[in-house]
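Slide 14.
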Amino acid sequence: MTGIHTQTPISIKQLVHRIINLRASGTQITLLAVCPNSGAMLEAAVKIAAANNMPMLFAATLNQVDRDGGYTGWTPQTFVARMRELAARHQCASPLYPCLDHGGPWLKDAHTRDRLSLEETMAEVKATLTTCLEARYALLHVDPTVDRTLPTGQPPRIEVVVERTVELIAHAESERERLGLPPISYEVGTEEVHGGLVDLDNFDQFLTGLQVRLKAVGLAHAWPCFIVGKVGTDLHTTTFDPDSARRLYDRVAPLGSLVKGHYTDWVANPADYPAMGVGGANVGPELTATELAALHELCARETRLVQNNSTLSPSGFRMALKAAVVGSNRWRKWLTPDEVGLSFNELTPSRQEWLVATGARYIWADPQVLAARKRLYDNLRWGFPGEFPAPHDFVVDRIAQNIQVYVDAFNLKNSLALLTKTFLPTIPPSSPTTSRVPRHPSASCQSPRASCH
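Slide 15: predicted structure.
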């Protein structure tokens, strides 16, 4: 499916093929995918797409956007509707691509919390895939690399990952045809150690197995345009590894695909992504930190205002934010082994601050947080009329400035005309005749970190 709010009939898969072709002439581009975990972040990304005349991808996880509203409050339909509203408001003619990120069993926290069986979680994921298609998503990331029926830390066998990947793609393709929709783009794989694909031998086995099985069930046309790979970054490392990325590129580009990185937040060398042929990169938690920093700056202004005006009541935004994060209990997923069993108040002040910042994205839509944020904005509008941008615009612009860093590094400014030119396919079909993926020495596994979930 193509991007929304655009007259350019080009899919993400076609964009990927175009990027592969452009590399032959020395043009290097990486697509950017923003994880839309707040309204301000979504608006900032739309503004940047409009200002830079570029395509923008939005990678929404099952936790963020789902049939139950996720933690953003958006269903796939309301998420896309909001995107359309913002595109109209900011006169964005660039293609905006709503995408599902990490669609697979137990990758929604509630599925693990509720101890769903494999059959139950797969049924839930399939229902969401259908809803995403109905909402006109452009790409589905199929990721069955988590298996809660296995002992902790044990990844599923590669053959199992392949079979479940094919099962979910087959469901999506059946539903797409039933709904009479055009072809959709797919993404597969994971950068997480628990998925078992960071080892290059396993990565090769996965690609070969997926080729064989998709062809066997008549789904060769649904070959994914993105393969998620580990490119050096994780929870403790923000340095992109060009050598690892190049090895992955050499494997997937001949298949008509590109590597996608999922841990791009705070990366020290983003310009190396297009240089090494990385086709896409997700950014999310870093933008949450930027949003939170902007709100903290507004709180500091409010504090000075309240001190000089006894008629104003403080918004209590910081307190509301902390209370919502603690009450959500999501902070527990980030505890280190030596912290497990401690209450939030028993943690060190620095750890509490980190957990609040990390967990903020989960509670932006909490009613108490929304009310406190409104009070904060109202206070500032009353106290500083016309002295600086409206509070909401101030936050959105701060996020947009952060996104622009990646736009510049990925060579996306004014890239739309180049990417949407009528291209002549010079690469193999999207799912070529099955061939053995080259074998290379295994790469070392590094500790995973949480991404946009």
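Speaker note: The chain has 15 helices and eight strands.
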